[in-house]
Structure formats: C-alpha cells, structure tokens
Amino acid sequence: MKRLFLMGALLFASLGGAMAQTNGYMARTGVYAENGRTVVADPRTTLAVDLTVRKEVILCGPYARYAQKYLGVMAPLSNKTLYAIEHASMALCDDPMSDVRAGKVPEPTTGTMSHSRSEREFARLQPDKTSLTVYPLEDAAREAASTIYSLRRHRLELITGEAGENVFGAGLQAALDEIERLEQSYLELFLGKRVVTTRTERFFIRPKEASRQYIVCRFSADGGILPETDLSGDMVLLRIVPSGDTETPYETTKSSGYETFRVADPSECTLSYGSEVLDRRVLPIFEFGRTVKIEVPRK
Questions:
Q1: HSE-up of 72 (CA within 13 Å, CB side)?
Q2: Is residue 111 part of a domain?
C-alpha cells in the first residue's frame, strides 16, 4: 500500500520537469529535458550478490599421534584448510527507494580457539619445556599430558577451597584464568589449532533480456571462491524467473500528453550452490519489464 501511494505521488504530484526519476518498480525512460538540461534515461538493474565464506584452518599438533593414548581423544593428524559458504544474500544496487538494498561489505573477521600468541603457528618454545633435558617425542607427550592433569587438579582445589584458603575474589579469578591459559597451551600440542576466518565478497550481476541464469562464481570446500573458469569448483548460480506482471493502472493509449516509463518485472531470483538454495527473493528487474506510456498533467 505504501509503495502504491509512493508511485502515485511520484507520477502525478509533480509537474513537468520536476517529476521524480525512479521508484522501486518504475523509472522514466527516453530523452527529455529536466532543470534546463537534456537527460537520456535507460533504466538498468544491477544486482549485488554477497557471499560470506568461512575459512577454517586446522593445524596438527606436534603430539597429535599420542592424543588418544594419553588424553583419550582423537586429534587431527594432518593440516587442513576447509571452506564453507556461511551466508549469502542478494540485493539491488544504487536504488534508494527499494526495500532491499546492498549495504557495505562487512570487514573480514578472524577468530581462534587458542590462547597462544600466534594464531597460525605453534610457539617455538613449547609450554611443556621446563628444563634443559631433551626427551624423546613420546616421553615429552607423556610429560605434557601429566602437566594437563596436574593443572586440572590445582584448578579443582582452588575452586573447592582445598588449596590457597587466602585466595579469593579477583586473585582467585586471575589464578583460574592463568591455569586455563596454560591448559589450553598444552592441549594445543595434542589437539592442534583451529583458526576460523570469515570474509564477505561481493559480485555484481547485470541481467540481460536474453539470459535467465548467471554463473556468479565457482566454489569448492578445498579452494573457497574460485573464478568462473576454474572447473574444479561447483557453480554458484543465479536464476531469474520473470513473473510477467508488469501491469500498471496509469498506462495510457493517448498519442500525446504522455511520458514513457519502464516498468520493472517483479522477478523471482534464486541463488544456489549445487542442490542447496542459498537465497531466494523477489526483486524488480527492468530488463524483463516493459515500456509504457503514462499521461502526465501539463502546466
């Protein structure tokens, strides 16, 4: 109802050259004069497709092969990099009257589950190194596992009050935080690191009358977003299905006293990756609309 009111206001409330240029579904087209200058209008639609990709980097810990033996858990035994499409959306570009508009591309974010100083590599001096003695790898893993269990016992004693009866308040919390940091550093030696990064990339699609589908990009779990020409990834595909509903009550058949407008078609736009539908919405597409005559009151 609000959009119909806007459309009526834009078409009839203003006179001659003061008429507004566009609304969400209709735009002035052709050659006309406005504010003392000649305007050549050819309404076009540009779609912004945003893909938010999650990149997960898994780094194998130096004691990974002993995780099950000493900690009773399975750990990754090799480095891996995995990609996944976390979110996808479509919107119109440069259309202030539209309800669906493309905003700014979000800044990349990086998170890690560890407390170490480096996110993408292990510390050169390992946290279980407390003496000059060089242990074989399995002995070092056993010592690290023993330290983990010791830290957990100390934490439990602090929480239950069995150790450090004068440790309370902020001092208790600081001690617990430090134990947590140390435990995580030791666990990394067995379980490795997991670094997660999210990044949003924007693609621009300009529909053509003769085409109903467009390859936005290609994507794979191993390589992330790939160029359209890289056949190692599956297509991220945009399909546009026009509705054919371009009727307007303001159309006239008069041979004079009219202006030409382009009526956009409310088309169903579907963004998919393989069999998965990433986003689906109805957007006004000028390329699948039609040009109509609108009677305009004159001074």
A1: 3
A2: no
H or E element at residue 181: helix 169-191
Residue 70 corresponds to which tokens in the numbers above?
A: 């000493």
Six token digits for residue 33: 């004069």
| 274 and 212 fall within a common domain | yes
β-partners of residue 110 are 197
CA distances from 187 to 70, 81, 134, 168, 182 (A): 11, 20, 20, 27, 9
Same domain for 262 and 213: yes
Cα distance between residue 142 and residue 165, in whole Å = 31
Instruction: Give the total number of structural domains in the chain.
Output: 2
Rounded distance between C-alpha atoms, residue 155 and residue 167, angstroms: 12
Nearest by Cα to 185 from 247, 112, 255: 112
Q: What proportion of the chain, given as a percentage, has pLDDT over 70? A: 77
Structural domain includes residue 276: yes
Task: For residue 280, give both structure tokens.
Answer: 């689906």
Find, among 285, 189, 199, the residue nearest to 242 by Cα: 285
Give, rounded to a whole angstrom, the gap between the first and last alpha carbons of the chain.
Answer: 29
pTM score of the predicted model = 0.69
pLDDT (tens digit, 9 = 90+) per residue, 134-149? 778 898 899 889 999 9
Q: Which domain holds residue 6?
A: 2-45+207-295
CA distance 218 to 57: 20
Measured CA to CA, the distance from residue 150 to residue 241 in angstroms comes to 64
Cα–Cα distance for residue pair 140/186, rounded to 1 Å: 11
